[in-house]
Amino acid sequence: MTETVSGSVGRGGKRATKGLKIKRIHTTPGVHPYDQVRWEHRDVVMTNWRDGSVNFEQRGVEFPDFWSVNAANIVTTKYFRGAVGTPQREASLKQLVDRVVGVYTRTGRENGYFASDEDAEIFDHELKHALIHQIFSFNSPVWFNVGTMSPNQVSACFILSVDDQMESILEWYKEEGVIFKGGSGSGVNLSRIRSSKELLSSGGTASGPVSFMRGADASAGTIKSGGATRRAAKMVVLDVDHPDIEEFIQTKAREEDKIRALRDAGFDMDLGGKDIVSVQYQNANNSVRVSDEFMRAVEAGDPFGLRARLSGEVIEQVDARGLFRSMAQAAWECADPGVQYDDTINDWHTCPETGRITASNPCSEYVHLDNSSCNLASINLLKFLRDDDTFDVPAFVKMTELIITAMDISITFADFPTEKIAETTRAYRQLGIGYANLGALLMATGHAYDSDGGRAAAGAITSLMTGVSYRRSAELAAVVGPYQGYERNAEPHKRVMRKHAAANDTLRPMDALDRPILAEATRQWQECLRLGEKNGYRNAQASLLAPTGTIGLMMDCDTTGIEPDLALVKFKKLVGGGSMQIVNQTIPRALRRLGYQPEQVEAIVEYIGEHGHVMDAPGLRPEHYEVFDCAMGRRAIAPMGHVRMMAATQPFLSGAISKTVNLPESATVEDIEQVYLEGWKLGLKALAVYRDNCKVGQPLSVAGKSSEKAAAKAAVQAPAPAAEPVIQVVEVPRPTRRRLPNQRPSTTTRFTVGGAKGYMTASSYPDDGLGEVFLKMSKQGSTLAGVMDAFSVAISVGLQHGVPLDTFVSKFINMRFEPAGMTDDPDVRMAASVVDYIFRRLALDHLPYEDRAALGVFSAAERAAQQRGEDPAALPEVIIDTAALAQSAPIEEPPVEERPEDRVEDRPAGPAVAEPPAARRNGSARALESHQGRTADAPLCMTCGTKMRPAGSCYVCEGCGSTSGCS
């Protein structure tokens, strides 16, 4: 444990005479932590998924030998600083860690955090050991900025404020732009802005907050967070009693209908598509701030008043249940809006005398004062699981102390995007410690995620983490003083501490895993209350649960944040290049923990590798199935299982939880209503839902729903029939078939889509025009081969009956199903399916440029010309020389039987080389798809084309570490 030695107590952040005595956790006196690790050099080469060109290359980078290829690649491409190819470029994890930790240690020395230089050295060594051993990680902005020539922005989360003045609204636009440019996200509550039902002082009608959301959304879509760092992420909140609340609720659902209509009309509406930018409100998460008054009205079926912004008087009465229903309906259609429980949030607020909590960051885990920020760090829980499946409580306590100390130091040297945010953050020093790998920890110890035992362990760990964090904050207050706003908020802050401690007292241990954790948590809360009463607290906020997107990959975590595992089968990158499919390495450990013998474990793991689930696995008892339940798949965790896990940890967090409650496609609006209602009853602070396939761009049932909705609308709008309708028989000329001659010109194209090979022969009429298509899929089984054969006959008959090729192209491009992914065609680098590729290739070969341009199909040369500002139509026509193609075709070597000494996994570690594009796209989401036989609900990464995986309420790319907005 770390000891505190202090003289006079510093106040208002003033420095005291003595600092902290730091004790070692993992390091050895006289030995540098780098010298206790075996290092190796690797090559990192990343290619562009669009055209196969190399877009990043750095050779000879240095990492510990136990770091995965993926973690090393992500750190090299995302976090190393300096121009590639120059001496200033970082080339070793040592340089990166030295750059960051050096600033922390130096600042701690200069500001009196340490009792002696020896304590500073121990702090320095322990921090470096923890980082290189992937025990924890700071959030991404720390790695981006600390120790560089750029401003030392360490915060990932910001909350802004907007008043009912045009100057304030324009300032909001500006502040968001600065934050996005720096690679971070922000949230804002627009409820102070007058509604469209209220008057301006000039006599006109106000435009309302939803109209101002358009400008902010366009700005976020343009900036995209500086391009290289991450896309802009933002949260927009509106109070449930705002008169424009119904318009706000329908905002994104209405735009989703627009996306469907444009897509069906042939526009490119996929993520990153050239036409998606015409749709509004797509760069923000929307949430409704609901009050206890509103939720009670929903339960009782009472009316609810919407209030004017300036006077506070009720200007409209609405049915509370109807409004609640519209929220659930919109979320059912497009996953927005989420809900934030206002009274619960403010009941746990440590600084109510300064102001209410009105908003959150984009992922809803940081909730505190307006114009404030929070820097995050997350602990890798699996690192504390001993070989005997017990939790290393003493090491966890010491590591939490170390991290909180470092995070508080960072506020001292940090830079902020605006002066208002700087003032608030330095005055209240909000921190956000959290964890990752909870799902893997529970599985490894034989606990089902949705079980009393799993929730007891999660609650105990969270309580211990926050109790130690605030106890350390009280110790820091004795050394360098409490936060500046503490004196005016002392009583409410101590009240919240007592609420945390009381919640801890309600926990009951379930087994040997959580019993010692809970015992230590109880002791830590008692010490926290004692020291807080004496010293105050250094930090207004200490803990939350972030999505841990990129940093989760950096730490080689199997699961992110509080999430369960996504799938039981994953793809692992190999040091020698390529990738291999593996069963989650937590599963064998879990099976051994459950009492299975080695031969049983081997058989079960082999079964899971083949099927992707545990149902009917040989020798696996049905009562153990639940241990291996995942977020998706054959045995997906029930929606309320996610809600109950959040409820088990929420009372022990200063902030909230970034997590999405996943619902199956078959879920109803009533199911979403129930989730929102139970979230309020269980004491959550925020909640977001996602119904499988509710967004455009997902493969299932969208077209059917659109056509059904259109048919229903037409039925409603159709005029009533006349009493005696006049029946007229109109004879429509039928098309006649124009057969091809026995000898006709044709071109055969060999293609590969997502690793699946095929051949397409396209025959034309001698005069002009495509008339026949033959398709052959290699090694795809009799069913798919037969379906593709029948499909090609149907297309050929249609062409011969006069159906224009561009009609087929408009209908079949962008169709999504497996196999899908990278192709070997330089003109069509990515295909959503084999059918998508086929009709893009046919369009390129047989349609003029003008027709293809209207369909959004361009060759590689035409795309390059567009980027150069040239007219693609002016490019010379390409004549296919079939003889030259035959002469230049590469000779394929016959397959060589694999020898044991040739296996990649048995070779000694060597440099990592570039992987085939298809292999690079593999990830846990892809593994899940391969076993489900359907496409998972996740977008493709805009950087490398990998299928992304959920991380909290956002997505993270396992290929390159890019996220959709979270650290």
TrEMBL record:
Iron-sulfur in keyword set: no
Which stretches does UniProt call biased (Low complexity)? Answer: 909-921
Q: Which CDD domains match?
A: RNR_II_dimer
Q: Which cofactor does it need?
A: adenosylcob(III)alamin
Q: Which Pfam families match?
A: Ribonuc_red_2_N (PF08471), Ribonuc_red_lgC (PF02867), TSCPD (PF12637)
Q: Which residues form the Ribonucleotide reductase large subunit C-terminal domain?
A: 155-690
> Which reaction(s) does the protein catalyse, per the Swiss-Prot or TrEMBL entry?
a 2'-deoxyribonucleoside 5'-diphosphate + [thioredoxin]-disulfide + H2O = a ribonucleoside 5'-diphosphate + [thioredoxin]-dithiol
Q: Where do the TSCPD domain residues begin and end?
A: 741-844
Q: Which domain of life is it from?
A: Bacteria
Which terms does the record give in the GO molecular function aspect? cobalamin binding; cobalt ion binding; nucleotide binding; ribonucleoside-diphosphate reductase activity, thioredoxin disulfide as acceptor
Instruction: State where composition is biased (Basic and acidic residues).
Output: 896-908
What is the similarity comment for this entry? Answer: Belongs to the ribonucleoside diphosphate reductase class-2 family.
Q: What does this protein do?
A: Catalyzes the reduction of ribonucleotides to deoxyribonucleotides. May function to provide a pool of deoxyribonucleotide precursors for DNA repair during oxygen limitation and/or for immediate growth after restoration of oxygen.
Q: What is this protein called?
A: Vitamin B12-dependent ribonucleotide reductase
Q: What is the lineage of its organism?
A: Bacteria, Bacillati, Actinomycetota, Actinomycetes, Streptosporangiales
